[in-house]
Each structure stands twice: as C-alpha cells, then as structure tokens.
Amino acid sequence: MISNHHQSVMFNESIDALNIIKDGIYIDATFGRGGHSQGILDRLSDKAKLIAFDQDLSAIEYAQDKFNDPRLTLIHSPFAQMHGIIKEMGLSGKINGILMDLGVSSPQLDNSDRGFSFNNEGPLDMRMNQTSGLSAAQWLASASEEEIANVIYEFGDEKKSRHIASRIKRFQLEQPLETTLQLANIISEVIRGYTKKHPATRTFQAIRIFINQELKQLSDTLEHSKKILAADGRLSIISFHSIEDRIVKRFIQKHSRQKSLPKGLPIFDQAIEKMPFKDLGKQFASKEEIEFNKRSRSAILRVASKNQL
C-alpha cells in the first residue's frame, strides 16, 4: 500500500524563517505532499500568491486532487527551471520567500515502484520525474565500472565504492541488474557487519543524486535566487546530508561576507560593499521532534535574507 503521509521536518521553524508578509508572493520549491505549502497558505491573505514546484508528476496529481485554493499555482517542473518560469510570469525580483525541503519524501520512499528504497523490492528507477531521463538501472547498465565508482564515492562518500562498482559489473555479466533488492544485496555482500545504517544507504543516495542531477539543480537555483527574490526576501532551506548542506552553506557565506578593501583609502572611499544576502544562521530539529520523526536527525535548516542593494 502506498502512503501519502509525509511528516514535514522542522515545519514551523522553516515557515517562521520566511518571515511571511500576508499579502506576499512565495515559492515552495519542493511541494511533495503539500505540508509546507499548506502551512504557508495558512499565513497568507486572499491577495497573496503561492507558487509550488515539483518534478514528480504524482505530487502534482496529488495536489490537483487535494488542494483547491485560488492562491496556489502548481508547476510540474524541477526547481532548477524556476528562474525562467518566474521571469515568464513577470515576477522576477518580486518573490518574498523561497522554501526548499531537499531530498526524498516519505511517499516516494514508501512506493516500491519508484526504486528509492533498499528495503523493498521494486524496479531500479530512482527518477524524481519518471517521464524523462535514464533510470538508475539503465545508467548502471551503460556506465563503466570507473564511472559508477566515481559517482558512488563523490555523491555518497562511500569508501568501498570501487569494490561495489566491481561487484555490480560482475553481476551484470550473468544477468541484468533491474531491481532495488538486487542492488542492495550486491552492496551487502561488499559491506558486512553494519549497525546504525543499512550498507546500501550511501550508494542508493549517490545514485539517486546523480540520476536526478540534484546538486547541480540546487547550485543553479541558489544562484538564480539573487534575481528571483525581492529586497528582504527570504531563503529557507532544509537539507538532509552534508553534500547538500555544504552547497547551501558555501553559497550563503560567499554572498553574505563583506569583501576586504585595500588599506589606506580616503575615508569616503572606505564604504563597505554591500553583499546580496545576509546570513541568518542555521537550526537543527529539536530533541522532541527527533524522538517522533527519526528522519529529522540529519536535517539542517539554513536561512538567509536578500539585502536591499
């Protein structure tokens, strides 16, 4: 049975971070099952607008069935295309806040047909948008052993990446690699004796990130946010592993730290150059939340506001 339940991590904290203006225009870059979207809508007036993106068609279909709000505009698209779409809508520089809840949602994990879970048998797909691109099985069949090892190491930080890639290619000499449990079992043969995490965790994460180009999409969207957001507009971003968080952290630091100016300039030339963003810090889930939602253990919320330049 496929569950549509998804417990939004740091729900109140991430929405509070948007510092919502009741008549404002906001973006939920990762609609999922609409938890954050509903939370934002609850704080908006009838004059406000919320634009929600999701590249997962099932999320859009769910929203069309469950959400009936004239303030909500649904867009079936990866958030990396946000800049062009917002520009076409005539809203560049007018968005008061962007919320991004990165990673995989509970309904996606619970649906074995999507191929994200190493605990359930299903086709080895892993695409967020199943209407385009190569599935994980197709990529693993066409990629070289070296390519597979590099992806697993770079995006999963898996120390045994080369051993796993070698086993994958050896398996494919005998039969096609087509299911999640086939891949999970191959990895378990390489990594024996685990405690907290399933041995396939890092490899599945790495392949999913690569198949969906998640890090490039994140980096591109962060850069575009400088043009999308209005003055004092907020970025509220929840990430679940160090690779994503590092990208968000470095972006905010790069665009919020003042640049050093040459010494010895006249007083009137020593005005500090204003940076695009102000770093408003980070938050972790509370102990209470972690107790009832284990997924929140690794979550980090980072917040920034766009300066008036």
Can you tell me about this structure?
The structure is a single chain. By secondary structure, this protein is of the alpha/beta class. Strands 3-2-1-4-5-7-6 form a seven-stranded mixed β-sheet, sandwiched between helices. The protein folds into two domains: 11-107 and 217-257 and 266-306, Vaccinia Virus protein VP39 (Rossmann fold, 3-Layer(aba) Sandwich); 130-211, Putative methyltransferase TM0872, insert domain (DNA polymerase, domain 1, Orthogonal Bundle). It has helices at 11-16, 35-41, 57-66, 82-88, 106-110, 136-142, 145-156, 161-174, 180-190, 201-211, 214-228, 242-254, 287-292, and strands at 25-28, 49-54, 72-76, 95-101, 229-239, 277-284, 300-306. Helix 7 (145-156) packs across helix 8 (161-174) and helix 7 packs across helix 10. It is built from 13 helices and seven strands. It is globular. The longest helix is centred in the last third of the chain and has 15 residues, at 214-228. Helix 2 (35-41) links the parallel strand 1 (25-28) and strand 2.
Rg (C-alpha, Å): 21 Å
Tally of helical segments = 13
The total beta strand count reads: 7
According to CATH, what is the class of the largest domain?
Answer: Alpha Beta
Number of domains: 2
Uncertain regions spanning at least 5 consecutive residues: 1-5
The largest β sheet comes out as: 7 strands, mixed
Beta-strand content bin: 15-25%
Instruction: Compute the separation of the termini in Å.
Output: 51 Å
- Provide the succession of SSEs: HEHEHEHEHHHHHHHEHEHE
The CATH level-2 architecture of the largest domain is identified as: 3-Layer(aba) Sandwich
